[in-house]
Amino acid sequence: MHVPDGFINAPVSLATGVVAAGAVAVSLRGARRELDERTAPLAGLVAAFIFAVQMLNFPVAAGTSGHLLGGALAAILVGPYTGVLCVSVVLLMQGILFADGGLTALGVNITIMAVVTTVVAYAVFRGLVKLLPKKRRSITVSAFIAAVFSVPAAAAAFTFVYAIGGTTDVPIGQVLTAMVGVHVLIGIGEAAITALTVGAVIAVRPDLVYGARGLTAPLKLRVNGELVDAPAAEPAPVAARSPRKVLLAGLAASLVLAGFVSFYASASPDGLEKVAADKGFDSKVEDHAAADSPLADYGIEGIMSSRLSGGLAGVIGVGVTLVAGTGVFWAVRKRRTTETSPSSVPENV
């Protein structure tokens, strides 16, 4: 759903740029309450993982594909404020280095793909976890449903922006119907990826999942025929709970997805591209300012093999996004004392 240059006029692009800048500023402040020395590197990895998975377009209908937006995944794993920053870092790297998403439309893309998806997804997620039993399965189910809602919400948000500042005169009702319709299907793919990823992390390290904090249910023991709560175990030392294994596994998965699996991604246009072509407003697309970048279109200039070119570009993208994201999150993290343990973090579900 990367909006290119030319779809939205200059005044509305500028206005959404202001909205996006304000949202990023608020998120930088809010992320201090979500990040610490353990979770800041995880947030950088989440950004890199989103970059990698966004390279994997999957078919959703005849001649149409979709890809992960990532707002729901980021919000649930590392928190809503940090989630906005994760997707924003990805969009910035894609726009500057890979000519994916217009530079003048960066504010539009951050507003739609980072802010709207994260806010909608986390609101739905929080509502569901309050209603469902406090079990790991509930977190995964809530993540799935939240992700489903977040994608058509972003499609509706684009239609709203286009209704105000679109550069062509097209029937907005038809655009809304087409955008929401195809993105409901894309949302199912987004939900599957989100639920699988959240479920995988919860299975090995539930303490690292922001949306699962406070989920711990007491262990039950049968005493004289009755179930009673077992005595609470002493919290594991922080050093023993290092997220290093999770980080290394996540990085390896990101590199494999971007460097190898991405070659098999669908070549069909994504939902926005398909709707734009069908409704005729793709004629207003302008040349990207970074079209001459050596990494434009996710390939390396001068390498003839498309497999090697795309794979190396993906690996570079993962690396750059990881470094940029981790740098930002490490800078804004809240510094905690050595006595603070994960068990002292307030419950959020």
From TrEMBL:
Parts of the chain that traverse the membrane: 7-28, 40-60, 72-97, 103-129, 141-164, 184-204, 246-265, 312-332
Name its cellular compartments: Cell membrane
Any Pfam family: CbiM
- Residues forming the PDGLE domain are 244-334
Question: Do you know which InterPro entries this protein is assigned to?
Answer: CbiM/NikMN (IPR002751), PDGLE_dom (IPR025937)
- Keyword annotations: Cell membrane, Membrane, Transmembrane, Transmembrane helix, Transport
Lineage, top-rank taxon, reads Bacteria
Q: How does it sit in the membrane?
A: Multi-pass membrane protein
Which protein is depicted?
Cobalt ABC transporter permease
